From TrEMBL, chain A:
CDD domains recorded: PBP2_NrtA_CpmA_like
Protein name, as recorded: NitT/TauT family transport system ATP-binding protein
A single MF term (Gene Ontology): ATP binding
Keyword Cell inner membrane: yes
UniProt xrefs under InterPro entries: NrtA/CpmA_ABC-bd_dom
Pfam families in the cross-refs: NMT1_2
The keyword Protein transport is annotated on this UniProt entry: no
UniProtKB keywords: ATP-binding, Cell inner membrane, Cell membrane, Membrane, Nucleotide-binding, Transport
UniProtKB/TrEMBL annotation, chain B:
Listed name of the protein: Response regulator NasT
Keywords on record: Phosphoprotein
Swiss-Prot/TrEMBL GO biological process terms: phosphorelay signal transduction system
PROSITE patterns per UniProt: ANTAR (PS50921), RESPONSE_REGULATORY (PS50110)
UniProt cross-references to PANTHER family, sorted A to Z: PTHR43367, TWO-COMPONENT RESPONSE REGULATOR-LIKE APRR6-RELATED
Matching SUPFAM superfamilies: CheY-like
GO MF term (any one): RNA binding
InterPro entries for this protein: ANTAR, CheY-like_superfamily, Sig_transdc_resp-reg_antiterm, Sig_transdc_resp-reg_receiver, WH-like_DNA-bd_sf
ANTAR domain residues: 133-194
Stretches assigned to the Response regulatory domain: 13-127
Residue positions where 4-aspartylphosphate is found in the record: 63
């Protein structure tokens, strides 16, 4: 039997690891699939190429899969997520100057990992600047429909700041993020691995928060397909889901991190130094100079604890953020949740759904 | 925002975002030849959105190799600052144009109210100029390759003439004979001669 050939688009980020490993380490082949990976430079390109059938499946921002299905951007197309590509992986990084300014405003004995404490300090910085007549700070995020956008807004809103007026939130493509920080076009950003570590290593950024400080189990990327693609061959979907989950399980094994980092660092994959990728996989991240480091086993979760099973409550939360921030009209929660397909995941894996009582673990201020 | 005449009564304002200055020049020339004078070029990504808002264009053309495409997606969110643009791909029934544009490597954002008849020729010019640039680049690479091959063959001939005491014509005939016998290109044999000479020399 000849293998089914699939074309999968990805953005060079560590959380594209599951389809990359599935394609290159035999997990796809075990399922009779031959995957051709195509690296893309923008989420808009990925979305268009998936929608118009150039790709069979794609590494896609979970909220972008939902917003495309709801027709909230320039394009409407029914997409489905039969498997999530893990949870978490983001961080908020500030320039050393803003980081110091923020720490100077931190309440005595406050925990700098507590978003309520850092939010209050940041609000003080913002107010002081306004009194001086200075410009409001600009913070970068990767896409309007992204968890990076929502995590920043969660942090800002909990501190009583208006994300539309008190700061400026600007889309900056990940490869330009570090450059934007260096040149002062942004004073901070929320982005996925490895870009926070790149900024820290260059000495131009300090990690203030890991994504888990704000959302313990944050939906991030999904493997998206066209809904019509699912109907062509149900068994093919199941094989693709299994290949990705097996790859995710392999990635969760600490013993495989060295090999995974080497694979992902390759020029045609992420094209960044191996040690930066290793940090994200190990959950051990230098946050600033002089040995400052955070160790956080949940920094980036692939398959552990059922993390790759699309959780309807995640889709519901993402849609809630879209309505909260005036990106989506009310009353479409059902359509938003329909993008997530735990039924297809369960059918592929043949296992009972894991019991996750608190699917998100939101910081509530 | 000041009132402007409806877009049907005035020239279409076009912003072109392309990091390749040569391709941008080729496209600009094509659009001007088609009667479009209001063309603004942006070749870097600094403060992109603010600059676009300041220009307030009717059509935005961007190459698909440009990560800044995601910055443009923000325009769908902020309706306060700019008239609401719609993507080219909004007309999803026009699959042929979409495929041609993606293959050519370009995407267009068009504001509401611009008639399809006015967009189509702009898009067609853009696609054909992008394709022309690709062909030009391929030809340039081939020409460069041929020049390199010629240089290698000249060096190999020189080596053979000195070591075997033959003239240029004989040296070339020798290279050609070996290439034919080994079913290889003359330039490949020439490269072997040069490499061997470097090792032995």
């Amino acid at each position: 039997m000849s293998a089914d050939r699939l074309k999968i688009g990805f953005i060079p980020l560590v959380d594209a690891a599951a389809p990359i490993v599935a394609a290159t380490c035999g997990f796809a082949a075990d399922e009779g699939l031959e995957i051709e990976l195509v690296r893309e430079v923008s989420w808009a390109n990925i979305r268009d190429r998936l929608t118009f059938g150039h790709f069979d499946a794609a590494h896609l921002l979970a909220p972008l899969a939902i917003s495309t299905s709801l027709g909230l951007g320039g394009i409407r197309a029914s997409l489905a997520a039969p498997v999530a590509l893990g949870l978490n992986g983001n961080a908020i990084t500030l320039t050393p100057h803003l980081h110091e300014e923020l720490l100077a405003n931190l309440a005595p004995r406050a925990n700098p990992r507590d978003p309520a404490a850092t939010g209050a300090a940041f609000a003080a910085v913002v107010r002081a600047r306004r009194r001086r007549g200075d410009e409001r700070p600009t913070l970068g995020m990767t896409f309007p429909f992204s968890t990076h956008n929502y995590q920043l807004r969660l942090w800002l809103a909990a501190a009583g700041l208006d994300p539309e007026d008190d700061v400026r939130l600007a889309v900056v493509p990940p490869p330009y993020m570090v450059d934007a920080l260096r040149s002062g076009h942004v004073e901070g950003f929320c982005v996925g691995a490895p870009w926070n570590s790149v900024a820290v290593d260059l000495g131009i950024g300090r990690i203030l928060h890991l994504g888990v400080d704000l959302v313990r189990r944050c939906p991030e990327k999904v493997l998206a397909v066209r809904s019509a693609w699912l109907d062509e061959d149900a068994e093919r979907t199941a094989r693709l889901v299994r290949a990705c989950v097996r790859a995710g399980e392999w990635l969760d094994e600490p013993g495989n991190h060295a090999e995974a980092a080497r694979l992902l660092a390759a020029p045609h994959m992420l094209d960044v130094p191996e040690p930066l990728i290793r940090r994200a996989l190990d959950g051990r991240l230098p946050t600033g100079p002089a040995g400052a480091e955070r160790e956080e086993p949940d920094y980036l979760i692939f398959a552990r604890g059922g993390a790759m099973r699309p959780d309807l409550r995640h889709a519901g939360w993402l849609y809630g953020e879209m309505t909260r921030w005036s990106q989506a009209p009310e009353g479409q929660a059902g359509d938003a949740e329909a993008v997530y397909r735990p039924d297809l995941y369960d059918a592929a894996m043949g296992a009972a759904a894991p019991d996750v009582s608190d699917p998100l673990g939101l910081f509530t201020g | 925002m000041p009132e402007r005449p409806p877009v049907s009564d005035r020239p279409v304002k076009i912003v072109l975002i392309d990091e390749s200055p040569v391709r941008a020049a080729i496209l600009e020339e094509g659009l001007r030849a088609a009667g479009h004078d209001a063309i603004m070029l942006i070749s870097d990504h600094v403060n992109l959105l603010e600059r676009i808002y300041a220009i307030d264009p009717d059509v935005i053309l961007i190459d698909l190799e440009n990560p800044s495409r995601d910055v443009l997606e923000q325009m769908f969110q902020v309706s306060r600052a700019v008239r609401r643009p719609v993507g080219m791909f909004v007309d999803q029934t026009d699959a042929v144009s979409i495929d041609r544009a993606i293959d050519a490597g370009v995407s267009a954002y068009v504001v509401d109210g611009l008639k399809k008849e006015r967009i189509k020729p702009i898009l067609d010019t853009t696609i054909s100029r992008f394709n022309a640039f690709s062909r030009l680049r391929t030809e340039l690479e081939q020409a460069k390759g041929q020049l390199e091959e010629r240089k290698i063959i000249d060096r190999a001939k020189g080596i053979l003439m000195r070591s075997k005491g033959i003239d240029e014509e004989q040296a070339y005939a020798l290279l050609r004979k070996v290439a034919m016998n080994e079913k290889k290109k003359i330039s490949e044999i020439a490269q072997s001669v040069v490499t061997a000479a470097e090792l032995l020399g």
